[in-house]
Amino acid sequence: MVLALQTYYALVKFGAETSLGPVVALSLIRELGPVLSALMVTGRAGSALTAEIGIMRISEQIDALDAMALNPYKYLVIPNLLAGIISLPLLNAIFVVVGVWGGYAVGVGLTGVSSGTYFGGIRDFVSAKDILEGLYKSLSFGMLITWISCYKGYFTGYGAEGVSKATTQAVVLSSVTILIWDYFMTSILLT
Is residue 12 one of the residues assigned to a domain? Predict the structure, then answer.
């Protein structure tokens, strides 16, 4: 909603307020949806995943899996990796849909842009390539978040302090990696 409001007042200066729908939709689909949903998942699920696996490490549950000749990666990493790859694109889709409707509420309800203009512009300017770009980003972010969180939890230091440091490191590293990887994916996908 804030994006739509700020964009509207910028577009009015150029007489292009009819472009509000496409600008909001493209911003959400290509950049804001994947990145912001990934950062939220990092803070919530990534930290919890790191702490869970870290506690399993310091309480020697992972060593018990090794002693029973069970592969800890198979039970701890692979399911979480699949969950991240599946769930982040779904959360991104929800984020984008809610964001586009929030932009609609502001654009049509507050600023007076017509409903047909808002959605017609989205239909005309948003392509399958844009949607796929957001999908590719959210898939890769899901993989990065879970991989980094599992790694930091698996190789945590001993004690509560070790788990705490590993959790903080996982969130910071995942957040920075998301932003850097987003830049590289955008530069590759736009060419």
Answer: no
